[in-house]
Specification:
Distance between the termini: 55 Å
Number of strands: 2
Helix content: over 70%
Strand order of the largest sheet: 1-2
Number of helices: 8
Largest sheet: 2 strands, antiparallel
Radius of gyration: 19 Å
Amino acid sequence: MHILFLVSLFLLNMKKKTWRNLFVYWPSMFYVSFFNFFYYFLCSPYLLWDFKSKMISTNALRFIHIVLINPMLILLFLSNLPKKVGSQIIYFIKWFVFAFVCEISCKKFNLIYFTRGWHMGWSMILYIEMFWLSLLHTKRPSLTWSLSVLISFGMLLVFKVPIQKTIPHNFVRIRRYIQSHKKMILNTISFFMALYFVSRMLQRLRMQPKSFF
């Protein structure tokens, strides 16, 4: 099911030709993926929700959702956003219904589980925040990051996640991971830096006035 969702998102992005907007929306894509990773960093092993699969390991599932599914989902969402406010409201409702159906399906087929008081209502609030903040990030990135940090720590307080235990624990895990995957991490950083500079260059070219000669 996870792989099916991944393939479906890929095909939808190809059909809508959203790859043309990759350099425009990649900061928002990165933002959403980062806070998904941030959730695992702050909460593991006291998670509120996580994915399950009989065929794929938990770490592989997390990687698929953080690095592949979330960015493609945001790219598809932002690339097809209407310009008129009324149309945008309808568009948001459609995406909310889509997220609700996906979450219900995952829960029904035991592809996701909830713990520590998390339930479907909280998931829906999270999706609303994700779509709204990813759009806000395209216009006010600094404000979006600030709001996201506040919301994240607010949720930690609501669900009483013992970050005094989780943060030291996950710092050790991350340090070990970095030490054993230095080459891959450096290549990933180099890729995103190149993506950033290319996107900045394209933005500057678009801002230059066109010549008639």
